[in-house]
Amino acid sequence: MAWLAHHPFGVEAHLARTTVVTFAVPATELQSLIPECLTLDTLDGTWGFVAVAMVQTNALRPQGLPAWLGNDFFLIGYRVFVRYTTATGKRLRGLYILKSETDSLKMQLLGTLFTSYHYNTIDVRYSASANHFAFESQKAELIVSVEIPPTEPALPIGSPFATWQQARRFAGPLPFTFSYQPAKQLVRIVEGVREEWRPVPVQVHQAQVGFIKQLHFSDVRLASAFTMANVPYSWKKGRTELWHA
Fold it and tell me: What are the residues whose beta carbons fall under 8 Å from the beta carbon of 114, sequence distance 6 or more?
């Protein structure tokens, strides 16, 4: 399917549980991983951020179809926080997807067909109690364990954020997600619509992420972690515009 057919229709889903662990890395090193049309959304120009979102997704389907026709699957998305200036000069804040992983072969095939989010199929083990959530994938070399403590936890040691309020700006998802076709300098913009998005800070017991290690950054810092549940979410049909350097 041609690139322009990516994101050809609106999509809706129910996010049963979303847990996001955000890592801070030197902005100068992260810049090389995003397309030329985007700029990093940074903290003081020093730190860029990669968010690892672990999402139990239910009833994902083309917008307008009944929920029983949707797909249930687990998703791990690796996203960079970026900014983009449109052809009309409007500045948008959003995400650039480095990689997506799912436990569903069907979702990998559909994701590859209709999006540009680089899907792979992996094993995922997810366990949850009242306040503890754990995620593990042997293939992805991922082990993440977090807990909602009785009181608000301290930020991770070494986090560049001064407060949880500041950290929430990099919890995601953001209003827009961007893709780029460099040969034709075409930018694809997908707008998300979220409801009841109330991220809760969590204490991280373990955050081993193979994909982050593979990028070989000179400095990687666990910056923040949040979780949230029962979020209705939808994505509008993608739109495309020509980018001028």
Answer: 1, 5, 6, 7, 8
